Amino acid sequence: MTPGDKSASTEAHRAAAAQLESMRCAVFTISDSRTLATDESGALIERLLIEAGHVVADRQLLTNDVAPMRASLEAALARPDVDVVLCTGGTGLGARDQTVEVVRALLERELPGFGELFRSVSFLEQIGAAAMLSRALAGAVRGKFVAVMPGSRAAVELAMTRLLIPEIKHVLREIRR
Hints:
The protein starts with 7 loop residues before the first helix and ends with a helix. Strand 1 (24-30), helix 2 and strand 2 form a beta-alpha-beta unit. 47% of the residues lie in helices and 19% in strands. By secondary structure, it is an alpha/beta fold. A six-stranded mixed sheet has the order 2-1-3-6-5-4, sandwiched between helices. The protein has one domain (22-175): Molybdenum Cofactor Biosythetic Enzyme, Chain A. Helix 1 packs across helix 6 (153-175).
């Protein structure tokens, strides 16, 4: 089977997932330097979700402070009107980049394929070997889907258009089965 081929099982799962209503999403930008006015990545996530027919139930800008970040993420995960939590930023190797550690501690099941595919596509189509610096990850928490993307606009566009938007309903359906 070539990468472009789709199995009957995958197509059946996607068809069943397509019946799901719009996903209700929370969007978090984690940054010590951005404001809502300068947050291009968070704005792009919000726009792409809405264009795909999803609902943005919450959008926040958080600093790289562990306790408040964790509290905000846990509050979003407790909301009945949130199915998906999408984070951008705080994924670098700097001492204050803590998003991955905070989210990983919350995950009940990690979805390694998201980070693997993100790095692969990023390597091939955007930044070459620098893709190894990405700590993108995703997983399931309490029947909800959580994904963490780097903070750059290009990384967000790649993750959203190539990976998340096409599969978000399918992922959530599988989490809730």
